[in-house]
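>> received
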Amino acid sequence: MRFSGLKILTEGLKGNSGWGAHWRDPEPAQEYDIIIIGGGGHGLSTAYYLAKEHGLKNIAVLEKGHIGGGNIGRNTTIIRADYFLPGNSEFYSHSLKLWEGLEADLNYNVMHSQRGKISLFHSDGQRDAMIRRGNSMRNQGDDAELLSVKQLRKMLPYLDYEQGRFPIYGGLLQRRAGTARHDAVAWGYARGADQRGVDLIQNCEVTGIEISGGVVQGVQTSRGPIRAKKVGIVVAGRSSQLAAMAGMRLPIESHVLQAFVTEGVKPCIDHVVSFGMGHFYISQSDKGGLVFGGDLDMYASYAARGNLPMVEHVAEAGMTLMPMLGKARMLRSWGGIMDMTPDGSPIIDKTHIEGLFLNAGWCYGGFKAVPASGNCFAHLMATGKPHVAAQGFPMDRFRTGCGLIDEEGTGSQHNLH
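>> returned
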């Protein structure tokens, strides 16, 4: 089934009675060439690109719950390529280019909106840092514009420009940045992978990883053992737990990151806006809700829920930046489990176990990385060589100290990233 304007019109006239299932619900086979553990955005995109770019067919994605039920369905949906350091900058530039062609590639509306992202700065030092970042982005081939306070007042009239504590000095705009519908991204990749023969196995929890003589043999699951020549771990905040099944200890801590959405209001925020002094970021969804988030809860946890002090902290930052936010009622909040590395940048690499691969450590960058993560991880699993855009993400950098990508300049401490 392909989507088209005619199909949508026809189904609208027929009461939407002719839509079929978007993907199959197969029973797991006894053996696959490749198993991807994790049915989130990164796992689904990996399977899709393995099939599309490398022509591989005998692939399964194993998801302990339902497709799109993890972090891919609970995030603030921001897409950007405004990274500064080599390693990250090439990767996220690659990801943004894939985002721009994603809907045509998948034949699926992921509601990609290039509404632009504005990063505010509040001091001379922050201005200098933003100028350097903007120049780096332009040198990379991406767009960046420095905005004056006068320009900001016209574009973002709802900000508090008169406050004395955190005066707004200007902003850095990336017009090609924006948002996408998180669960639609999961559905689009799932549908595309299924059409290319990938088995999407839901309600199939991996309980063990079989290894013999230093070579991966397959996995144990809640639905029985499944053999495989290659296994990829792509499970976000659960990475350390899955790696432990293979006898590995990862340089990762899992932390909770909360996000929030208000009741639907009339359109008022037509960009993504980030607060340089409060780690607060906000955009408005297509349904009218104001979607925003802030810092981690700052303690290690596998619980997909947050605590009230961080709710208060994020609300304070939002009110400081835009007092109008206080008039909106908060509709709900949720927590996602972030897999935080010491330098705040991800891992896409082979492990010391032959046939076992790792995609983890996405920290705050998980959603915006979905296309490039899958594209680069698929390249690694299919060819055994890192993709040129992901050469800066080997796991060995944490052992040697060489090649660390400390994007935020906060040092090698998990809780500060």
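>> The chain has a mean pLDDT of 95.
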